[in-house]
Amino acid sequence: MSVFAIGDLHLSLGGDKPMDVFPGWQDYVARLEQNWRALISPEDTVILAGDTSWAMTLSATLADFQLIHSLPGEKYLIKGNHDYWWNSRAKMDAYLEANGLTSLHILHNSAVQAEGMALCGTRGWLFEKGEAHDQKILAREAARLQMSIDAARDMQGERVVFLHYPPVYADETSEEIVAVLKKNGIRRCYYGHIHSTGCAYALNGEYEGVEFRLISSDFLRFSPIKIQQIVEF
């Protein structure tokens, strides 16, 4: 059994917003499915780091979620900025159960134990300079991240964080998010949101003692990345 992660699937099987019109996204659904089935077994865990479906309502996600459910593994969904279908936890859980989507789960201000690791997840926030509301939202998202890490308090192994927004991007840093990571001794953080030419400015390396890694689907060439357990000696 293993843990995998990928973000920003941007599925639109029940709508009319195909990503194939963008460079590098041609036949992306078929490519994703082929890579997924080659790598992932039913016993594996997969973290989906936001922007999973373009659907505007929860009911409109059905075709996208049915595809994900048909793929191997237990999947945990994090909220992204384009997940307009996102709703209350109770409504989402009820929707997944009612539609037999038993391999899909919500990871939001919470954590899950898998393969000797405690996997924490929430949306996060990218600090945009000049936006008056950003500081308030950033403080709220930092609190949500702390809730997620707290949820892993009694779990075994390394706590690994998955966010949608990058805490560090180009010359911008969400200091409040980074501070929570550092305070809790988080060593690894995976994030999505960044695409195309923007990937050149994404951090794939260490910052303030935390290893960051971009996992947006086009950056990964639509192939989920395996999250290896760190073995201490």
UniProtKB/TrEMBL annotation:
InterPro entries: Calcineurin-like_PHP, Metallo-depent_PP-like, Metallophosphoesterase_sf, Pesterase_CT488. Gene3D superfamilies: 3.60.21.10. Residues 1-196 form the Calcineurin-like phosphoesterase domain. Pfam families: Metallophos. GO terms for molecular function: hydrolase activity. This is Metallophosphoesterase. It comes from Ligaoa zhengdingensis.
